Amino acid sequence: MTRSGDASRRPDAPDIESLAAARRDEAMAANQRRLLVFTGDRDAGIDAAFDVVRGTDVPEDEVTFVTSREGFRFDRVEPRQASSLLGTTRTVVVLDAHEDFSPNTLGRVAGAVDGGGLLVLLTPSLDEWVSRRDSFDERLAVPPFTVDDVASRFRGRFASILRDHPGVALVDLDAQTVERDGSYSQGISFDTPVPSVPRDRTLRFPHRAYEDCLTADQSDALAALEALRKSEQAVVVEADRGRGKSSAAGLAAGSLAAEGRDVVVTAPNKRNAAEVFVRAERLLAKLDKLVAGSADEFDLSTPGGGRVRYVPPTEAGAVAATAETDALIVDEAAALPVRLLASFLDAPAVAFCTTVRGYEGAGRGFAVRFRDRLDESEYEVTDVRLDDPIRYAAGDPVESWAFRALLLDARPPVDQLVADAAPENVSYWTLTPDDLLADEHLLREAFGLLVLAHYRTEPDDLARLLDAPNLTLRALTYEGRIVSVALLAREGNLAAETRTHMYDGGRIRGNMLPDVFTSQLRDEDAGIPVGYRVMRIATHHAVRSSGLGSRLLSEIREEFEADADYLGVGFGATPELLSFWRKNGYSTVHLSTTRNDTSGEYSALMLHPLSEAGHELHDRHADWFLQRVGDVLGDALSDLDADVARAALAAVDADYEAALSDYEWRVVVGASYGPGLYTTAPGAFRRLALAHLTSPDCASLSARAERLLVRKVLQTRAWSAVADELDFHSTAQAMRALGDAYEPLVDEYGGDVAHDERERYQ
């Protein structure tokens, strides 16, 4: 698309070129960025964007349009492909928000504008935009709701911020008026920290690496990363977005490889690690140490065996623990779950680089959820923080605008205000979206806790919280401060044609439990009952493990008992989480048979029935789960963690009948009390193991004995592997231990035939 026209402007029309030139000059002088917003007709907005480019004389290859429109002579990116801008910089980025606008897209686009550059936002008339519907609203309209049920609070709040935030120029193209010229000079510092080689320590990395640092902060971070040259060292690098932590990590990786060391780099995906490899490749090339590979291949080799290579996070822990690896660098660590982060603690040396405030993940969440494990490990931990922006100067108004609009800096209450909160002195509240919108402080506290609850909270989640018709929020407060929060998604009550569509393989948004039950587990009636799924639950870190989460779930259960058929939850299965939900009345009904690509965990689905219909749904799925789980553990779930299997089975609220024949009982008794063999009838041993593991309180077995049942009997591992994992001296000792484990099961579950057979050996 070319410019729609160069017709003469009305005499009183805004001079877009002059306005853009003024903001560009101001941005360049301060090495900051400015935001220009053009509201009104879409074609007029695109014309205005062309005026911006012409008025600022920016080269075409430094301009990107993010729009669904086609035909531009400039670089164009589809809004849903905005993540491709991560790690890149542009002088002018134009975001067309008339179609397919989402908060995620805005966050990604804003980060691509370089210091001295302009972010241009094209929107409908702000008053019209608030009530307008687009494809993002359609994604929020999960069945049985329609797009007419989607609210517009996020855009209303967003429009309000555009009208009053410093450094934002606002032009109404329909009215041909400049509502705000966006002039801004407050908070500007012209004293950019000069990078220097730290002088208070002996440095081992090449001097060239320090010369490539852009700020003193980055130089200090690189010096701290020199600790990776030694084993049992861990470095935590924290920074807001755009501070150069990935570049520092890349310089460290290149420096280590130049010494002949093998460096594994991991991140949520390759895209997140791109900057690490770009900087490592550039440094190695300057040092004349690059002999093979490229940043595009995410694999670099140096003379003497040095290497920098990307490994997916689900594999990085195992790879880093091998003898060949010298160090592991984890970029965007906050966007990875704790289980994966913990798996990295077997590396010889490890660096965790994490974004404190940004859509990639929440650094505070990383600190709260994982930092204790790191501090308790054998590593000597070094902390370093980068505060100085790399791409633009401090005080940048576009950064503060993005933080405010997308709540990237949302935090729960400070510890001191909630330290005395306990189950007996808190209050239960329904926090409606209107309540949150009316109280920015309340919104920040609630969203801040939700950020800590999950490792991948995104700006889109803020819009869902405010506008999605299927979501509702409940909280516990202490003296007016939020200390625990649960986000619930209403599911079910689906029309017959929708249920048939799911049964035939179609995907339905926002109905996770009915979707799995219907499409995977072949229950076409699963979408009839109404349930509330606990999407996220979080308790303030200052009062965790004090019973507040259980108190909140108890209040939710009491509130919805008369209005829903069941409560449900789905999560990456860990023994701790399974035990928590079991304690709160939830029962296992499914374990996924594939691992999550990011977390590396198998998902567990659990239900807490409330009505007769809910009990019927729960009971049939609990029964079906028990019918299949023995076979699945020997197949798709053969690598499931033994303690996860134990906890999942213990949380099944259904009776399991072992149903052994007289012959099978004689075999089991012979293998436990006498000279018989487990291999004679493994199916009988499997059924008896399931009977115990689903009711572990009936017979007394140690945790090690139960792991033996899982690994050998249910997952059919080789004796040598079982003996090695469970620390038996030999396979013979493991075999004897299995027989010993079945003695109390014979005593508990065996009838007359089994007990008579037992007497022969006693």
Automatic annotation (TrEMBL):
Gene3D superfamilies: 3.40.50.11040, 3.40.630.30, P-loop containing nucleotide triphosphate hydrolases. GO terms for biological process: rRNA acetylation involved in maturation of SSU-rRNA; tRNA acetylation; tRNA wobble cytosine modification. One of its GO terms (molecular function) is tRNA cytidine N4-acetyltransferase activity. It is found in: Cytoplasm. SUPFAM superfamilies: Acyl-CoA N-acyltransferases (Nat), P-loop containing nucleoside triphosphate hydrolases. ATP binds at Q218, R391. NCBIfam families: RNAactase_tcmA_Halo (NF041296). Belongs to the TmcA family. PANTHER family: N-ACETYLTRANSFERASE 10, RNA CYTIDINE ACETYLTRANSFERASE. Catalyzes the formation of N(4)-acetylcytidine (ac(4)C) at the wobble position of tRNA(Met), by using acetyl-CoA as an acetyl donor and ATP (or GTP). This is tRNA(Met) cytidine acetyltransferase TmcA. The gene is tmcA.
